[in-house]
Write a structure and sequence with these properties.
Penicillin binding protein transpeptidase fold; peptidoglycan glycosyltransferase activity; Membrane peptidoglycan carboxypeptidase; hydrolase; 26 helices; elongated; five-stranded antiparallel β-sheet; Glyco_trans_51; transferase
Amino acid sequence: MQAQGKDRSSPVTNVIRLIAAGAAAGVLTAAIALPAVGGAGVTAKSAMEDLNLKPEELDEPPLPERTVLKDAKGKQIAQFFFENRQSVTLDKVSPIMKTALISIEDFRFYEHGPIDIEGTIRALLKNMTSGGVTQGGSSITQQYVKQVLFNAAETDAERAAAIAPTVSRKLNELRYALAIEKKYTKDEVLEKYFNIAYFGAGAYGVQAASKRFFGKSAAELNLAEAATLAGAVQNPNRTDPNVSKESRAALLERRNIVLDRMAQLGKITPAERDAAKATKLGYKDTKFPGGCETSPYPYFCLYVQYEILNNEDFGKTPEERKKLLQRGGLTIKTTIDPQMQKAAEKAIKNWVSTKDKPVASQAMIVPGTGEIKAMAASRKFGNNKKKNEISYNVVADAKHGGGGGFQQGSTAKPYTLAAALEEGYKYGDGFPSPAGYNAPSYGAFRDCKGNRVGEPSHQVRNSSEGGGGFKTLQSGTWGSVNTFFMKLEERVGLCKTVKMAKKLGLKRADGQPLREFETFTLGINETDPVTVASTYAVFASRGQSCKPLAITEIVDRYGKAKRFKPKCTRVMDEEVADAVSGILSGVFTKGTMSGVGGIGRDAAGKTGTTDGYTAAWFAGYTPNLSSAVSIGDPRGAFDNRLMGVTIGGRGYSYVYGASISGPIWKQSMMAALKGIEPAEFEAVNMERFGGCGDICAPKPVKKDKDRGGDGEPDDRGGDPFDMFNMDDGDFGPITPGN
């Protein structure tokens, strides 16, 4: 054979000579007969010298599949996917679909080896005589290899290399194809190709494409439909029916080419071809619901997604967890309970409209396990601002797709109460709690790093919910008296209060460290319903702190199941937790929820109204279930306060914890617990917590005879804090005039 520069024969003649010379070595003949060789101007001889056509094992990562979420009862509640794909076995693909694809892509598929020598040579001749690449000539096996390499690529550069028209890429493809056909039968290769191929309109694999294009399974495809899908795989972007009229016209043209080819090969009759050609394209644009926005429980769905991405239980590295979610094929059993979810949604709907700018959100958690049973909000999830939709998880923290949350308000006071009880305070301990409180000096409070905090010039005042006077742990809590809790925190210690809150699981919604200022006890930290409900569940479970649990089991694509158990730690003495519950139970009968009332079973809780009415909360629990409800304006709570507002068609001058959040909590909890046997709180150890220690309430004043001659009895042995405050339903002496 002459060198390239001296050979004066035509390119076609050279190829024929090469084919003849390599007839005994079919693999080499196939290798030199590459469109890329002719197009790149590389001699067949130089290409052959570099060939090493030995089978090379191909790494075949699992294909991205849809992941299905199921509720606690086993019913599907969501599905999401990186690629819309539902892999099927070959027997689930209609015979006409197999025939159509093979006819147009590789009609000698069952006759040749890994490489179709005749097809490759034919394509090479066509390309060389036309002056461009008009035919590919790759076998279905080679196409499968290319798809695998493209799918495995993780960067744009790797994806470009996987389809680059280069000799080296083509040779590697051949090596992999040799190994693939040693490893699998022809039917297995065809099945894999059907499942990996992209057909356009966001549909990967023949099953998803059949449903997307025609609203039926791949097993039900008729001739015209099969020809359409077979035609789509060549250039799915050009023939994507979801793009434009032009692309649909291109797909119709391509379908007819497939039908002509099938008739030419004798796979169908001319009459069948003509009848199929006479039909319309028939594209149905069947929506394939995916993503959390299509779930009936979108906020919970988001929580599950982010939990997989962030939790090391699902992979050691962020990249591993991301791959798990993207590759999918998982069936995830979750904790969500349909009855409890419905109860939360209905209660919220009764009090807050989807059109209201302020948003109410609620989470329900099982004490002792951390299982999340409900996550609901008043506004629909989505990106349509005209419909007042909200695009983040308003029920949870930023780590789970949420935002910055709302200030917790007085639902933070039980953390100080718990710290005091743990320190040995008794129910009757208390002190005068005037209308206003100023830190006695700078440094009266110290954070957990030892830094001095506490600004004497900043005065804390009681809200209209909580009047002043001498308050005990009980009455101060029932009335939600700000100045009482400032004094209690001052005595117990800011750091001890912060440490208690952390032990219970309190975190800021934005993921930043808790702000440790003197007003910590008043709920200055922004948080979320899932977190608050979880902290209150510790009291309900008698001191067990459990991480919120959304996933109980994951079954992978191969049927292997992994179960996830609650992660709980004892963080509080049982009797201390019981004592907290004993006081918080009185909130319904003697405190800020007395106007709303209880739920007909043992329950405890706390209202929360923030400074300036930026948000309002109620958090409460029974031994069976803990729940927190918040309401605030996501446009900016401080710029859009809950004052002079209309919510749910009702007008409010001011929104308190018991105005909206409390009634939502009551209604939802009654419905959620319906059919569940009521459980009772453990009796409080009154020998330990009853009475008072060194800071008892002053004794009642004894009235004696009139010694002043003014017609009124004289007071003796009295205290300036001896008048009774009737505002909150509790009987604690107050300062006259407060």
